[in-house]
Each structure stands twice: as C-alpha cells, then as structure tokens.
Design a protein that fits this description.
alpha/beta, nine-stranded mixed beta sheet, two-stranded parallel sheet, 34% helix, 17% strand, elongated
Length: 420
C-alpha cells in the first residue's frame, strides 16, 4: 500500500464529510467501504488530522503487550457499544466492534479486553463462586440434542404484563422466542410448536418445575400436559432441582441478553408491539451475536450442516388434545433433603441421609414402571445406581409412534459413565 496515497484518500474523505456531503457520495469518490470511512471518521474525532496516520501494531515490550493506541481503542469500542439504542454491551460486543468497525487486525481476547478495561477503571473483578456438591449437569452430544426452556416476565407501561418464552439449543446456542400475555399450558404448547417446526425436535428438553411445565404441584403421580406432549413426540423431559433457577443458566442468560439488548432499549406500549419485535431480535441473535461458547461463531454458523428432525403441520395436527402417556423416560435432578429424601412428581422417595445435600439423578421409565436413582460424587467418579423403585402408573402406557422415532437414541444418559 502507498502510504502517502492512502493518507491523501483519508484526508479527502474527511474534508468531504466535514462539508456535509453524504456517506454514499463520499464512498463513490474515494472508492472505499463504509467500515473504512467509519474507522477514519472515528480516528479523526479522537486525534484530529494526526489520527489519519497509519498506526503501528508492533508490540513495544513483548508479544503479549498492546500499544497504548490499541488500549484506547478498546476503551473507545466499549464506550461506543454502551451508547447503542439496543443491542449487547458486554465484552463479546466490544470485541466484535474492534474487529468489524475498527478493522483491528489482531483483536484482543475477551480476557485481555476485561483486563484493559479493569486497568482503565471501567469495572471491578468479580469474586469467585463458592464450591458446592457435584452437580450432574446434562450435556448434549452429537446424537443427543438438548433444548433448555424457561420464561421471564416484564411489565409494560400502564401495568400490563408480558411473558417472554425462550428456548436455547445447548449445543448450537440457537434460540427461539415467543411472547404471550400469559403463561398457560396453551401458550407453552404454542411456543413448543414454533420451536419444533423451526429448530427441530430435540431428544431432551430441560426446564424448571414451574406448574406451566411440570403440571400440578400437589397431586401425586400427576403427569402434566407438557410432559405428556414431550413423551408423545419422543422427547425426554429433564427437570432441574426445585428452587434452583441457576441450573438452567444457559436460558437464564438468554433472558439477560434479550433484556439488555432489547427491553432496556426499546419502548413497547402493547403486547403486540413486543411480539412484532421478536423476528428482529431472533435475526440479530442468530446472525450477529457470538456466544462465548462458540469461539467467534454465530448460532447460525454453528447449526449449519447439523441434521434436524422438524415437526410437520400434519404430524402436529395428528397429536391428540389430551395426549396419553407414551413409552419413554422422564429425568429429575434433585438435591437430597436433610431427611434423606427427594421429590418426584409430588411424592417423597427415601434415598439416604448419608447423601443429604448431594445431587442425584432420577429417571422414570414409563413403560417399565421403574424409577431409578443414580449418584455421582465427583466428575472423576463413575455414576452409580443407588436405588430402584417400582412406579405404578394407573393408566395405559402407549408405545411411541414410528413417525416420532428418531434414528439416534442413546440407551444410557451421559451421566452414567465416566467423563471423557
């Protein structure tokens, strides 16, 4: 690149911009991209005409040191994303800003960005969380897709309430959002229908013990409508411990992303207005947001090439309004009480006082009328079956229909074996 010629182009573009000439016309004259123009306009705002000179990125002290100019850009990028009308404002958004807007060739890692901002006094380090009993977290595999579902509520101006339902694929991080004025079983069913027709039917669905998902919280041996619906289409419900919303952390964080990127930035005066914004949020999330766990990929990138078994409208219409209990498994992650018991479908089951405070994994086989309980002391220990109970079901258990049998079905949950 001819540095003198390049600087002449930069100065020419800035002079045109200062005269009030529109962006499109400037780009026609200098034959550059919008990102290029945005970058040098920002440089000019920061340092005047001196800012139009090319900056060396060679480290002054070591291969891990960043120039003061880069550190200033990090702070500038962070402050820039804070001023957006809506969208994320964290470290990932700052890193994308450095790469896309400022065209930084060597983009610092998230940890480096945090360190630079911490030195600049932007925020403080968080204290590490306390250690606790081993938790048998469900993990998706190539043959066992897990979705996590939850809802959050917000109040519109005037007092009306909206319920925002989210589902996230724990592997690809793809999400689906639906907004309703209530959280009835009918609304949950409509949300699941949208998910299964767009993102596909998973093998497992993780959720909390809210009555909208779990069913009655009082009647023993009660199989709620959502549990029945999941079993009918071949999905294994996975219920996290009672009162521990953090165990559904992935979808809880998705609530936070939506809240920061949309709710705190956009005014909604009705339920319909919030519903109409959903496609825009989903497009942004799928195509622009880069979840930390995907290492620079978007959810759309992550799900490319992955097989999905989508629910067709004809299959949906064939599902009865009152679904029967179908052969399958329901999983419950529970913390053993001080009395040595766990709760499954509103009934107490005695495990052992020795395990008080520990987490166990209980699996109910509907077609075998069995409740099996497993325990794992640590990530390095094997999962052991510690209890087996007969579980009577007072109605016929029907076989899973062939049209809902997916090709990949694992026989044992991952938690029953040693980690890789």
């Amino acid at each position: 690149m001819d540095e003198k010629q390049e600087q002449r182009q930069r100065k020419k573009a800035i002079r045109l911009w200062r005269k009030g000439i529109g962006t499109s016309r400037i780009l026609e004259i200098v034959s550059r991209s919008r990102a290029w123009l945005s970058k040098w306009k920002e440089r000019y705002r920061q340092r005047g005409w001196k800012g139009l000179q090319s900056q060396s990125r060679k480290p002054q002290r070591s291969s891990h040191a960043y120039l003061p100019s880069v550190r200033r850009l990090i702070v500038c990028a962070y402050r820039r994303v804070q001023k957006r009308r809506w969208g994320l404002r964290g470290m990932g958004a700052t890193r994308r800003e450095l790469r896309v807007t400022y065209r930084l060739r060597l983009v610092p890692s998230v940890s480096t960005i945090k360190r630079v901002l911490r030195v600049a006094g932007v925020f403080k380090r968080r204290r590490p969380a306390k250690t606790e009993s081993f938790y048998p977290q469900p993990r998706p595999t190539a043959t066992y897709t897990i979705h996590a579902m939850d809802w959050t509520e917000r109040f519109l101006h005037g007092g009306a309430k909206v319920y925002v339902f989210h589902i996230i694929d724990l592997e690809t991080r793809a999400c689906v959002q639906t907004i309703f004025p209530d959280k009835t079983v009918k609304s949950v069913t409509a949300h699941l229908k949208k998910v299964w027709k767009t993102r596909g039917i998973p093998q497992g669905l993780q959720m909390d013990n809210d009555a909208a998902f779990y069913g009655s919280r009082r009647v023993p041996h009660h199989f709620g409508q959502i549990v029945r619906l999941c079993l009918y289409v071949g999905i294994e419900p996975i219920f996290i411990p009672v009162g521990e919303a953090k165990r559904n952390g992935d979808v809880e964080r998705l609530h936070g992303i939506w809240d920061q990127a949309v709710w705190q930035q956009v005014h909604f005066d009705s339920v319909k207005a919030a519903q109409d914004f959903t496609p825009q949020f989903e497009r942004w999330y799928m195509n622009e947001y880069e979840p930390p766990k995907l290492n620079g990929q978007t959810p759309r990138d992550s799900e490319r090439g992955r097989p999905r078994y989508r629910l067709t409208e004809s299959l949906w219409q064939a599902i009865p309004d009152e679904a029967p209990i179908v052969a399958g498994r329901i999983h419950f992650i529970r913390r053993v009480s001080a009395e040595g018991t766990i709760e499954v479908l509103n009934e107490q089951w005695h495990i052992s006082k020795r395990l008080a405070g520990d987490y166990v994994w209980a699996t109910l086989w509907t077609h075998r009328h069995l409740l099996e309980v497993f325990h794992r002391r640590s990530a390095e220990s094997p999962m052991k079956r510690i209890k087996t109970f007969h579980y009577a079901i007072d109605e016929p258990v029907e076989p899973l229909l062939p049209e809902f049998k997916q090709h990949s079905r694992r026989r044992k949950m991952f938690t029953m074996s040693r980690p890789n």
